[in-house]
Inverse folding.
């Protein structure tokens, strides 16, 4: 496993950043408001002048204690660190990852963002994330390649059409651009779709959401990591948390409800901290078990696949709930496919032939013309599924132990808002309003936030 | 692909079965408090290791059965030989349904 920052630092992008940074003065943690900008001219000058390509973020020694320890170096952990430092000036923060930054779902997802959810709580939350994504390139001084290409969820049954009308109304009430369109309009937007009435599952209409689209997921991870580093946050890769140290709790070793966190045990020794945040997605319950906190989460793999690149013909993201498939075309021309999670719980990230066969069959029902295209790759990531398809965020019965988990198949788009809100929770020691509905205790009180109708096909 | 050892039909592709989930004992619905009931409904162990779980042999014998599977490797433990009744398991038998790699293609 190569640390990808190494890859980034040898890329033209990084070179440009370096030269820009030398022009702007040295890159000291905490200096300036934003990390330096990349530019093509900078790349050229730098490339001509020197062969020295320093890494994009620092590698420093692990300290014995921090104000905040964040477990998991995906978009959620890194965004939380970035906003802690940027919005609240809390910089004595370490992000620990057992592998490399972005090695979990954050580097494996299909990069789709949208806010056309089903519940008012969900819509408000994801809408905030979209607006943070909208200004991210300038906020982080890194092009995250946001492509606002529109997002279309097809309806093949009357039941699906009904759910879409429902979603459109909920969306409109909250000023989200979202409406139900008919099959002719679907054909106009995406001519490659088979909209004839003679298919097995005829396309009756769609929920159309123009502000949805795709963003380069790696750039988001790198951007937050670079931004957090710039403010003095430390990131430690290959640092695996084995245990969470607690005292005063009702369970064994002082863990469990009523106790409080004192630190973590890692493969590189014990580290003390009064606040430990669980941002480990698919591994969420393994971490919360270490603190004696039980979560209603099961871990399922989600698989995805990508084809060889062809000329761009698919202008929007297309999702089909009935066919359990979604597809978008990258700027390079590859088709990226995703589906629903594998039907059994596991921590194994192996792909399966069933997935490829089913996917190919369903895609061909939607777009019969691409039968000759070849798949290049398939892969899987772990998804932390909750009973209501909504996340679990905020404080837990163990003092100082916070969770930002339950991201299932939809957590990439939620990275920015989650980081912002979790940082606020940590800094103010109070649950912000936007994430109040997602508290862990909702399962005991039966106040679920049902998003299955808007999130079951994973993306 | 993962082979699931049905005690009646022998090892079958997981797509022939329905995964029901973790085997939890159900509290008495007449006496359980709402909170106990919701804990039963929602809370999961989700271990990265041995898990006692329920499968339904949808396309085969149409029976429910319990198996123990290591969720990190997808190996089933002590799985019954084809034809054996649940409870008469040969403990020496260890069926490997997937290679040991856990980390996938990282
Ligand atoms: C194939 C696929 C497609 C997807 N498509 C979309 C999509 O289109 N849109 C969308 O919004 N979402 C999508 N998702 C979901 C999204 O990827 C995840 O919800 C999101 O990336 C979760 O981010 P995270 O930062 O919480 O966790 P991750 O990125 O999973 O990071 C968790 C990190 O925790 C680390 N970790 C685990 N255990 C330990 C330990 N003991 N000690 C230290 N570190 C540890 C891991 O190494 C990992 O890096 C998709 C997911 C998959 C798998
Ligand atoms: Zn059977």
């Amino acid at each position: 496993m190569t640390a990808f920052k190494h890859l980034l630092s040898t890329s033209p992008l990084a070179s440009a950043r370096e030269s820009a940074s030398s022009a702007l003065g040295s890159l000291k943690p905490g200096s300036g408001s934003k990390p330096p900008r990349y530019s093509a001219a900078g790349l050229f000058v730098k490339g001509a002048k020197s062969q020295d390509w320093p890494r994009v973020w620092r590698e420093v020694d692990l300290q014995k204690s921090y104000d905040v320890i964040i477990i998991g170096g995906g978009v959620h952990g890194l965004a939380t660190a970035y906003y802690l430092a940027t919005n609240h000036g809390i910089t004595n923060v370490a992000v620990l990852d057992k592998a490399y930054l972005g090695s979990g779902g954050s580097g494996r997802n299909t990069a789709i963002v949208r806010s056309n959810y089903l519940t008012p709580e969900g819509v408000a939350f994801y809408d905030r994330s979209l607006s943070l994504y909208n200004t991210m390139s300038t906020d982080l001084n890194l092009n995250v390649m946001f492509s606002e290409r529109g997002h279309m969820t097809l309806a093949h049954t009357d039941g699906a059409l009904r759910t879409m009308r429902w979603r459109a109304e909920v969306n409109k009430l909250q000023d989200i651009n979202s409406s139900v369109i008919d099959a002719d309009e679907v054909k106009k937007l995406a001519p490659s779709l088979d909209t004839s009435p003679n298919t097995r599952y005829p396309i009756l209409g769609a929920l159309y959401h123009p502000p949805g689209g795709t963003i380069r997921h790696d750039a988001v991870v790198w951007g937050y990591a670079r931004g957090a580093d710039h403010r003095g946050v430390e990131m430690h890769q290959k640092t695996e948390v084995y245990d969470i140290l607690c005292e005063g709790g009702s369970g064994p070793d002082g863990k469990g409800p009523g106790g409080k966190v004192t630190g973590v045990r890692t493969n590189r020794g014990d580290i003390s901290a009064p606040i430990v945040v669980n941002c480990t997605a698919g591994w969420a319950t393994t971490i919360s078990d270490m603190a004696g906190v039980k979560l209603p989460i099961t871990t399922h793999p989600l698989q995805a696949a990508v084809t060889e690149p062809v000329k761009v013909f698919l202008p929007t993201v297309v999702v089909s709930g009935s066919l359990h498939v979604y597809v978008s075309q990258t700027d390079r021309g590859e088709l990226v496919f995703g589906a629903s999670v594998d039907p059994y719980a596991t921590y194994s990230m192996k792909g399966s032939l069933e997935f490829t066969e089913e996917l190919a069959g369903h895609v061909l029902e939607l777009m019969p013309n691409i039968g000759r295209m070849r798949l290049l790759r398939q892969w899987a990531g772990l998804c932390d599924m909750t009973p209501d398809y909504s996340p679990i965020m905020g404080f837990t019965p163990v003092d100082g132990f916070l969770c930002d988990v339950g991201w299932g198949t939809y957590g990439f788009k939620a990275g920015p808002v989650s980081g912002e809100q979790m940082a606020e929770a940590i800094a103010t020691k109070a649950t912000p309003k936007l994430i109040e509905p997602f508290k862990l205790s909702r399962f005991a009180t039966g106040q679920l936030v049902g998003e299955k109708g808007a999130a079951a096909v994973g993306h | 692909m993962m082979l699931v050892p049905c005690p009646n039909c022998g090892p079958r592709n997981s797509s022939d079965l329905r995964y029901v989930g973790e085997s939890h004992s159900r509290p008495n619905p007449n006496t359980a408090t709402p909170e106990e009931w919701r804990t039963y409904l929602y809370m999961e162990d989700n271990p990265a290791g041995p898990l006692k779980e329920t499968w339904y042999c949808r396309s085969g014998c149409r029976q429910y059965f319990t198996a123990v599977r290591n969720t990190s490797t997808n190996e089933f433990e002590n799985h019954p030989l084809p034809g054996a009744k649940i409870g008469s398991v040969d403990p020496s038998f260890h069926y490997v349904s997937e290679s040991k790699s856990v980390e996938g293609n990282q």
About this structure: Chain A touches chain B at residues 1, 99, 103, 283, 285-286, 294-299, 343-354, 379-380, 387, 443-444, 446 (CB under 8 Å). Residues 197 and 241 of chain A are 55 Å apart (CA to CA).
